[in-house]
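User: I've been trying to design a sequence by hand for this structure and keep getting stuck. Would you show me what you'd pick, starting by listing the structure so we're on the same page?

Assistant: Good idea, let's start from the same input. This is the structure you sent:
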């Protein structure tokens, strides 16, 4: 009986990967807006990444995103980062999958590494000059990322995953919003790193001088609104979706021991 149970569980995972990979590949074809300084476009699928982590977990969700990304390429979605286009969404899904499963430390470490790698890259502009009246003020480009990391380090970072699994309407909404905020900012960091390393330092497609003069000043204005839009879509889709899947959701939760008769 235990062998049958294991086979059944394995079959469910394979089926979930097949279904959610196909879904991701289709939704990845739907554009949401242009990538600043790049030829590609953001996709509506960016809003699905945290939900894949919540629903499928870090491993099944991550694999589904990888396969779905390559399926989208096979369907005509042009790669932007030499085939590494799955990495930003993968980081998002894996991080949120761990948070929902109460594994907080790996996410804190991963976020710190991404921040360090981005800050230390010579193409990164740490400050952006903002004109205010007759003067200019140097403002940190990563201001929203620092807020997201502070949220992750705070009690909210511990509680968000728990709130999602309670399925109580108010807590579910708040939990998904917090997880989506943390996840999408990590996704943004990974995308920025790929832009610098792949598009400029490896391929030479983007000129290095374009980052401090055009790309980062423009992104500074746009990215908070872009990330907010992704969070809103994630919450709007995620709350009813998680409720609908509540019977089969959260298989990682410990079950009470069976009674011996």
């Amino acid at each position: 009986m235990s062998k049958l149970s294991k086979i059944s569980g394995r079959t469910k995972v394979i089926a979930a990967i097949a279904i959610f990979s196909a879904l991701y590949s289709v939704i990845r074809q739907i554009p949401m807006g242009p990538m600043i300084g790049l030829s590609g476009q953001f996709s509506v699928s960016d809003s699905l990444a945290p939900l894949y982590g919540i629903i499928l977990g870090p491993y099944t969700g991550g694999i589904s995103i990888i396969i779905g990304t390559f399926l989208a390429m096979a369907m005509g979605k042009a790669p932007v980062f030499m085939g590494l286009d799955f990495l930003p969404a993968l980081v998002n899904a894996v991080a949120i999958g761990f948070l929902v499963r109460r594994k907080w430390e790996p996410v804190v470490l991963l976020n710190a590494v991404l921040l360090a790698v981005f800050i230390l890259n010579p193409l990164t502009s740490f400050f952006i000059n903002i004109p205010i009246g007759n003067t200019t003020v140097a403002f940190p480009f990563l201001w929203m990322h620092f807020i997201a990391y502070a949220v992750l380090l705070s009690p909210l970072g511990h509680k968000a995953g728990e709130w999602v699994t309670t399925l109580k309407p108010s807590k579910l909404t708040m939990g998904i919003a917090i997880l989506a905020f943390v996840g999408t900012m990590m996704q943004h960091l990974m995308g920025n790193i790929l832009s610098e390393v792949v598009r400029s330092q490896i391929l030479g497609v983007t000129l290095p001088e374009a980052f401090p003069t055009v790309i980062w000043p423009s992104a500074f204005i746009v990215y908070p609104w872009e990330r907010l839009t992704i969070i809103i879509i994630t919450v709007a889709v995620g709350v009813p979706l998680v409720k609908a899947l509540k019977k089969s959701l959260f298989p990682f939760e410990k079950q009470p021991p069976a009674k011996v008769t």
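That's my pick for every position. To get oriented when you compare it with your attempt: The helical segments are 2-27, 49-74, 87-100, 105-120, 143-153, 155-166, 169-202, 210-244. The mean pLDDT is 87.
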